[in-house]
Design the sequence.
């Protein structure tokens, strides 16, 4: 059995992304997907004493939105220094803040040209910290045609996937029987969002993974616990909730 996860690059994303990666034998960075303004490709939330705060990486765009792999980062301002200061202030009392700060500082010091390079480097650094070691590949290295399930199948079949793990949003568009016909079963994440110790008040499950690294340190891998259930079971649960 080979489990594959395919996700667009996101900037230091929330814990749920790493819970998917935890289940994967191969993780495919979908870096040839179109950049979406206002999405999570170049921004993420931190938990601060004043509430959630967005960290945004400025990018250079003109005209039609290009693939994520081609979107260049704008280095005209001192946004890296501001991010580092904000993180240091927000997590000054976190017991393992040094590990999270090192990841952020090292990734920024590399000065990647594109947002895809920044996101991929940061995610893989966080995976190493969390002891997650799937094989990492990029969709742009094996470009395929098609849309939605057709494109997904074209990515999964050459990788010899027998199981594809996805999020709840796929229930609205994925053709699971089409993948099943290609010998690929589909499992859907069931996020537990179990609280862990955080700073600054009520628990917020949707902030950057750096929050878990800074607060939990070597215990952070154990916080990646959400399971994935078979497509039919997830679809039945969704229908029951909707009804």
Sequence:
């Amino acid at each position: 059995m080979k489990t594959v996860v395919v996700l667009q690059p996101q900037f230091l994303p929330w814990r749920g992304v790493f819970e998917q990666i935890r289940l994967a034998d191969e993780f495919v960075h979908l870096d040839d997907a179109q950049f979406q303004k206002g999405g999570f490709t170049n921004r993420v939330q931190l938990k601060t004493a004043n509430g959630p705060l967005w960290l945004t990486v400025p990018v250079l765009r003109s005209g039609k939105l290009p693939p994520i792999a081609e979107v260049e980062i704008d280095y005209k301002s001192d946004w890296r220094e501001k991010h580092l200061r904000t993180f240091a202030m927000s997590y000054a009392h976190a017991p393992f803040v040094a590990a999270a700060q090192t990841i952020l500082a090292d990734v920024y010091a590399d000065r990647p040209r594109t947002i895809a390079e920044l996101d991929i480097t940061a995610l893989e650094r966080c995976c190493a910290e969390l002891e997650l070691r799937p094989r990492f590949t990029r969709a742009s290295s094996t470009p395929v045609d098609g849309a939605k399930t057709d494109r997904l199948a074209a990515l999964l079949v050459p990788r010899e996937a027998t199981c594809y793990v996805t999020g709840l949003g796929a229930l609205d568009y994925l053709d699971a029987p089409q993948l099943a016909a290609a010998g690929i079963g589909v499992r859907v994440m069931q996020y537990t969002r179990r609280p862990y110790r955080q700073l600054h008040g009520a628990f917020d499950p949707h902030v950057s993974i750096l929050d878990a690294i800074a607060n939990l340190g070597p215990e952070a891998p154990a916080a990646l616990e959400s399971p994935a259930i078979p497509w039919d079971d997830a679809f039945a649960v969704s229908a029951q909730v909707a009804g």
Notes: The first strand starts at residue 3 and ends at 7.
